[in-house]
Amino acid sequence: MEGAIEPAPGPQAQRIAVFLRLRPVARPSGRIAASPQEGWVQFDVPKDAAQGLINNSRETYRFPFDGLLPPDAGQGEVFDRVALPVLRAALDGYNGTVFAFGQTGSGKTFTITGGTERYADRGLIPRAISALFAEAAARPGHTYAVHISYLEIYNESGFDLLEPGREVRALEDLPRVNIQEDDSGAMHLRNLSMHRCDTEEQALNMLFLGDTNRVVAETPLNQASSRSHCVFTLHIEARRAGADALVRRSKLHFVDLAGSERVGKSGLAAHTQLKEAKYINLSLHFLEQVIISLQEGRTHVPYRNSLLTMVLRDSLGGNTRTVMVAAVAPEAQHIEESISTCRFAQRVAMISNKVEVNEELDLEVVIRQLKRENALLRQELQLLRNGGASSSGDSAGTAEGSAGLEQRMQLTEAEQHVLRRQVQAFVEDPSPDSLLGVEPSMLFIRAAFDLLKGMARGTAPQGPTAKGPAPAGAAAVVGAATEAELRSLRQLVQRQEQQIKVLSDALLADQHKAFEYFCATSPAHDAVAEHKAVLRARYEEARTLGSQVSAAKQRISDLKAAMERRRLGRSMAALLRQQQGGSEEDEAEGQREAAEEERAKQQIEQEKAAYRTAYEQLKAVKADIDGVQAALERSRARLQADFQAWPLLTGNAAADRDIIRFYEARAALLKGMRA
Ligand SMILES: Nc1ncnc2c1ncn2[C@@H]1O[C@H](COP(=O)(O)OP(=O)(O)OP(=O)(O)O)[C@@H](O)[C@H]1O
What we know:
Layout: E1 12-15, E2 17-22, E3 32-35, E4 40-46, E5 58-64, E6 67-69, H1 75-91, E7 96-102, H2 108-112, H3 124-137, E8 142-154, E9 157-160, E10 176-181, E11 187-190, E12 195-196, H4 200-216, H5 224-227, E13 229-240, E14 243-256, E15 262-263, E16 278-279, H6 282-295, H7 307-311, E17 321-328, H8 335-348, E18 352-355, E19 359-361, H9 363-385, H10 402-405, H11 413-428, H12 442-457, H13 472-479, H14 483-521, H15 523-579, H16 587-644, H17 653-674
Parallel strand pairs: 2-6, 2-17, 7-14, 7-17
Antiparallel strand pairs: 1-18, 3-4, 4-5, 8-9, 8-12, 8-13, 9-10, 10-11, 13-14, 14-19, 15-16
Helix pairs in contact: 1-3, 3-4, 9-14, 11-12, 14-15, 14-17, 15-16
The structure holds adenosine-5'-triphosphate.
C-alpha cells in the first residue's frame, strides 16, 4: 500500500458488493444448496399445495452473490474477503460501509461484532480496528488520526453508545442523537460524540464501552439488539509527510441492522407474492423503499423517511464503497425468510455508488507553507539586493548591522554560540516547515554550512566557525543579480503575500461561517441568546431605576436647598426687623412659614422614601444582573465546549465536506477565542 496518497482519481461508479454468509446450524435443510466456488445459493421449495393439486413438483430459486461464505468460513476469512479491501480503501480516503442484513439469529452480530467466547470469534469491527492501526503503521511517511463514534437507532430515535462515565440501565439513559437539515438540504447528526483514539487499545476499549452500553441498555421488553440498528464508525484522517496541506478524510461504517422478519405472509405459498409482506421494523421498510427507488433508477429517493436511511444515505447510492453481508440460517423453518433476505440482496447488488477520494486542502497548512516560502524569498531578495550583504535594519542581532558583517573575517564567539544553537535546533526539529533563520550574510551562511557539514561528518567544529573571509567569488556571483531578477523576485514576494491574504480571509470567513452555523443549531446558543435578552431587559430596568434614584437625589437636594434659602431669608428678615427696632414677626406669617417648613420636610421625606425604594430595586436588579451574567458566562463556556466537541457525521458527502471544513476552522477559531 505504498504511496497511498497519490493524486486522487476522479469519481468511479462502483456496484455494492453482496456476500452471503450461511450460519452453522445443527440441522441444515436438505432443500438448500450452495456453491462457494461459483458464489450461489439455491432453495428448493414445494409448489403451492393449497391449489388442491397433488404433486411433488418444486419451485427452485437460485441467487448469485459476489461471494459466498459457507458455514465453516472462519471470522478471519470473512474479514479478509469482506472488510479488508474496504478498510484499505478507507485509509486511502474512500468512505466505506459494511452492513449485515438478515433475520434474527442469522448471525449478523456474530459477523459484525463477533462472539465473545473465543478470541478467534472476533468479528469485523475489532479486526478492522487492529488492521487499521497495523496498516497505518506500515505506511511510512503518512500520519493518520482516528476518531470513533457508535450510534444505536431504536424506534426512530438515535442514541450515543459512547458516553464515558455514564451509568446506563436503559436505552433512555444514553444521550439522544438528532438529525438536522441545513439550508443546503444536507443532513447533520447532532450530539453524536466522536472519540480520538491514538492506539488500537484505546479504540478497542471504545468498542467495548459501546457494546457494553448496548447490552445493558437492552431490557426484556425492548429486545433492543434484535430491533435496533447499530452504526459503528471509524473516522480516518490521513496526511502525507511533506504534503500535509492535502488531507484525506473518510468514514468507515459497520452496520448491524435489526432482524429483518416480516409479517403478512401466508405460508410458503406466498413466496412468489412476498411483495405484501411487511417488515416488522419500520426503518427496514424505509430502507427497502430506498433500495427499490435506487434499483429502479427513480429520481426521488426517499432517504428522509427514517433516521437509518438518512445515516446510510451516502452508503446507498452515494460516495461510499459499500459491502452487504446477507446472513442466513440454513434451516428448514427459515427458508421463507432466507429467500426474502436473498431477494433483498439481489436488489442491493444492482445499486451503483459513485466513489471518490475525499481530499481537500487544509487552508491553515497552505498559509503556513506560503509564509515560510515567503520568508525564504524575502531573505533571498535581501541577499541579492545587497550583493550578498544585508543592509536592512530588520536583521537584528549584530551591533554594527549586517553590512558591516561582510567586512569582518569571522564571527564573534557570542555569534558563533547563538548560531550553533540555531543550527542544532533546526537539525533536531523534524518538521518540514522548520526554518534556519540565520543572518542574511555570507559570513553567517558559510558558518552555518560549516556547522551542518561538521554535524553530518560527526566532526562539528568546536572552535570558531567561519574561518577566513567569504570568497570574493561568492559575493560577486550573488552581487551579479540583475535588476530584472530583483524585480521579478520582488513581484513573486508580493504575489505570495497577496495569496496569503486571500487565503487568510477565506479561512476567517470559514471560521465565522462555522461558528454561525454551529450557533444556529446549538441549544447552548439558544441559552446564550436567552440570557443576553434577559440581560438587556435587566440593564434597561437598571438604567430606568438609576435615573429614578438620581432624580430623587436631585429633588431632595433641591428641596433641602430651598428650605435652607427660606430659613436664611427668615433669619435675615428677623435681623432686619431687630435692627430697625421693629415689631416681632407677624404671628400669621410665622404660622404660614412653619407650615411651609413642615410641608418641605414632608416632601423631603417622601422623596427620600422614593429614593430608598428605587435604590433597593436597583440593588436587586444589580444582583439579578450578576446572576444572569454568571449564567451567560456558563452558557458561553458550554457553547464553546460544545463547539469543540462538535461531532462529524452525516450520510451525505457534500454535507460532510462542509462539516469537515467547519470543523477545521473551529479549531482555529477556538484558538483565537482563547488567545
Ligand atoms: N458463523 C457462526 N459461527 C458460530 N456461531 C454463530 C455464527 N453465526 C451466528 N452464531 C451464533 O448464533 C447466535 C445468533 O447469532 P447473532 O446474535 O449474531 O444473530 P443476529 O442475526 O445478530 O440476531 P439479532 O437480529 O437478534 O441481533 C449467536 O449465539 C451466535 O454466537
